[in-house]
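Support case: user asked for a sample of complex input and structure output to validate their parser. Sending the pair below.
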Amino acid sequence: MSIKKLIKKTTFLLNKKLLIIAANPVPTIFGRVESPSGPGTFADPLKTLGSLFANFIRLVFLGGALMAMIYLFWGAFDWLVAGGDKESVEKARLKITNAVIGMLLIVVGFVAFGVVTGDMLGIIKKQNGNWIFTIPTVNKCIGGGEVCDPAAAKPDCCEGYLCKPVTGGNICQR
Amino acid sequence: MNDFVNPTNFPSSRFADLGSITNLITPLLSIGGGIIFLVMLFYAGFTVLTAGGKTENLEKARNIATYAVIGLLVIMFGYLIVKVLAIILNVQDKITL
């Protein structure tokens, strides 16, 4: 078989595959992936991401506080055993000062992050103790049971749903 | 190809144009940038915290924090710069890539 024929055949097969893909919704082609049955946090992946982020921040603050405590004690101990030696005292003083400055820097960085991403850019927001990432989606459509506008040129109901009137408005229904 | 590929079903054909993929990727990038900014500031804080009396560690921490802030400023003003350029170059209405 010549290469030209091979290409032609492959293209034909690919087109056939595309036809099959185009005719069916995504889950019937690729199947459905189930998450492990954990503590139920995987039900809403965005919420899980937010709680993961919150736990990371908590962990960093815990680690920072522990390290600050250790360095404060270390500096105090160094000062204690310095015994008039100017250089040792200076070293101990710097240890304590930098421990305090570092802890402050962690807190200030966290606040700056919150102000810039939450209030100025609006990409990572904090609501009721949860971090919410505003993640963009492809082809956003209105799901079943949600309000739609039939007067719009294209009522953006999801595949298989139609904009039908009910008492008190219009919703997307099958 | 457009005749038989249904844009509501076929995943890759949802990227109808360069604009839609840009709209998808730029917010994700800025979210990632924000998180990296936070992580870098935490790292700088830890470096200062554990510096003791070493000046080179303080220098390193200052560099980390400075470049993290510069990066976030670029992310913040990226849209603004592009839109100002669009006004200067008189690109009408919306910027379509």
